[in-house]
């Protein structure tokens, strides 16, 4: 079943058209990796899916509901679409556990006992059960990012968007985060990942999307695209990053 | 002619000082409350609300407190509203305080990384929840030193209310100085009175500043 359907999506910032007719769809449980040069519109695309950016022409359907751009529809949309950011964006005044508990508690009005249990479960899932009471500034970058993943998962989203979630990390911390994502993928989570980790895109992704100048330039099985790029743009991109 | 002993002078000044402290305290509490409302208006998504708050704040920051008190005092009288010097002083200082605090706090809110807004939004929080659980708790921490620092300005601002006849410490001092012909002694004591109120406040402001450096990220 199609969970996400994007059709001829256009988005401009003032005179600058950033998305120029993007179309693709994502099935439930599918893992989509998005690659492309800086400025090709990858972040903007993810932000549209989460309602952080409005868009112009085109149709975006998520879980059978058309994304309207109406303010009243934002909350229901974001309940289905979780997001993890490059800069973690943990709440620094809250412990790891409280970071995870906050939204289930105040948005979903779940009971204190339930959210405590939930937070414990989610932190366990990212391998940080022992950091429940640690503040973000007491955690490494990799640990902070894993808490951010747990925080997004605690809302039980239908799809998780990850925007270059390892790009701000020291190289030795990248793998612990990728391992968590890989486990999520194996558990059947629907994922859309913008990433510079080509090995990861190739091994974990079901589908690879190559964005170029605001368009889906190539899309298909990762192995296929990496070994036999159909366009010179992808070929040169692959060469530049490998 | 009545003879004033030093104790007479001091005891009268102490009463005036009590009024200064009381007025400062009340204006600060009421001004904080009103300031919180102005802050929400100032950073509201509604442009009309934002603009109105901006005009309000700029009016009170851009005109002398004395002018504001005159406008209030004579304006209300013109409208036939009979109001005491105390009430005028309190209303005037409250409005003044609310405008400054709203602007101080806006600076604190806007100094937080935008990622805090985005992360909380992506977790399906509405604007109120973002403010209540993510933005305000962090903003309060960084706003503590400048807010306490501003309370000193409120105390000093109360001196201006002597002009409209409110019997705080400066007005009391003026009357005693006129009666005793000892302005240096009396105003010296008045200055000491202000210092006794303000010094602990600024010392406290410095302490919270140091402390909030220590726990900067939390
Ligand atoms: N808020 C914004 N205002 C104006 N231009 C923006 C904004 N966000 C992104 N852009 C521009 O849109 C283009 C695509 O950006 P982005 O989606 O971040 O690309 P990517 O994530 O692929 O690097 C860039 O040229 C960028 O400068
Ligand atoms: Mg980007």
Notable traits:
heterodimer, A: 242 residues, alpha/beta, Rossmann fold, 6-stranded mixed beta sheet, 38% helix, globular, B: 218 residues, mainly alpha, MetI-like fold, 8 helices, binds adenosine-5'-diphosphate, binds magnesium ion, AAA+_ATPase (chain A), ATP hydrolysis activity (chain A), ATP binding (chain A)
Given the structure, what is the number of helices of chain A?
9
- Ligands bound to this protein structure: adenosine-5'-diphosphate, magnesium ion
Largest chain interface and its two residue counts? A-B, 28 and 21 residues
Radius of gyration of chain B: 21 Å
Please specify the SSE layout and strand pairing.
The complex is a heterodimer of chains A (242) and B (218).
Chain A: E1 2-13, E2 16-27, E3 31-36, H1 42-49, E4 59-62, E5 65-66, H2 74-80, E6 81-84, H3 96-106, H4 112-125, H5 141-153, E7 159-163, H6 171-186, E8 190-194, H7 198-204, E9 207-212, E10 215-220, H8 222-227, H9 232-241
Chain B: H1 6-42, H2 47-62, H3 65-78, H4 85-110, H5 114-122, H6 127-157, H7 169-180, H8 183-214
Helix pairs in contact in B: 1-2, 1-4, 1-6, 1-7, 1-8, 2-4, 3-4, 4-6, 5-6, 6-8, 7-8
The structure holds adenosine-5'-diphosphate and magnesium ion.
Magnesium ion binds at residues 42-43, 164 of chain A.
């Amino acid at each position: 079943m199609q969970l996400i359907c994007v059709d001829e999506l256009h988005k401009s910032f003032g005179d600058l058209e950033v998305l120029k007719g993007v179309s693709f769809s994502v099935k439930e449980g599918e893992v989509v990796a998005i690659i492309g040069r800086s400025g090709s519109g990858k972040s903007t695309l993810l932000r549209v899916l989460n309602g952080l950016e409005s868009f112009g022409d085109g149709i975006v359907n998520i879980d059978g509901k058309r994304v309207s751009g109406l303010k009243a529809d934002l909350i229901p949309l974001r309940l289905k679409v979780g997001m993890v950011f490059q800069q973690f964006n943990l709440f620094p005044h809250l412990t790891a556990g409280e970071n995870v508990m906050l939204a289930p508690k105040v948005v979903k009005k779940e009971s204190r006992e339930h959210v405590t249990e939930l937070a414990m479960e989610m932190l366990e899932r990212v391998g940080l059960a022992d950091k429940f009471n640690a503040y973000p500034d007491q955690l490494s970058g990799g640990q902070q990012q894993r808490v951010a993943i747990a925080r997004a998962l605690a809302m039980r989203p239908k799809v998780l968007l990850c925007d270059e979630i390892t790009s701000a990390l020291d190289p030795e911390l990248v793998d612990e985060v990728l391992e968590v994502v890989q486990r999520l993928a194996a558990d059947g989570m629907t994922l859309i990942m913008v990433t510079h980790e080509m090995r990861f895109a190739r091994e974990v992704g079901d589908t690879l999307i190559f964005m170029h100048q605001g368009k889906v330039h190539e899309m298909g099985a990762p192995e296929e695209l990496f070994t036999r790029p159909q366009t010179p743009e992808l070929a040169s991109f692959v060469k530049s990053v490998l | 002619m009545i003879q004033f002993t030093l104790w007479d002078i001091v005891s009268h000044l102490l009463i005036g000082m009590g009024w200064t402290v009381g007025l400062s305290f009340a204006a600060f509490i009421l001004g904080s409350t009103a300031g919180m409302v102005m802050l929400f208006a100032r950073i509201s998504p509604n442009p009309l609300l934002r603009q109105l708050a901006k005009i309000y704040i700029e009016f009170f920051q851009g005109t002398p407190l004395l002018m504001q008190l005159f406008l209030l005092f004579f304006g209300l009288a013109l409208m036939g509203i009979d109001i005491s010097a105390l009430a005028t002083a309190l209303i005037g200082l409250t409005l003044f305080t609310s405008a400054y605090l709203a602007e101080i706090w806006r600076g604190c809110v806007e100094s937080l990384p935008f990622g805090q807004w985005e992360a909380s939004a992506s977790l399906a929080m509405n604007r109120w929840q973002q403010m209540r659980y993510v933005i305000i708790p962090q903003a309060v921490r960084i706003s503590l030193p400048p807010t306490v620092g501003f309370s000193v300005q409120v105390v000093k601002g109360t001196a201006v209310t002597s002009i409209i006849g409110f019997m705080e410490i400066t007005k009391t001092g003026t009357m005693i100085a006129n009666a005793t012909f000892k302005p240096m002694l009396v105003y010296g004591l008045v200055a000491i009175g202000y210092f006794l109120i303000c010094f602990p406040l600024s010392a406290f402001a410095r302490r919270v500043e140091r402390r909030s450096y220590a726990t900067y990220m939390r």
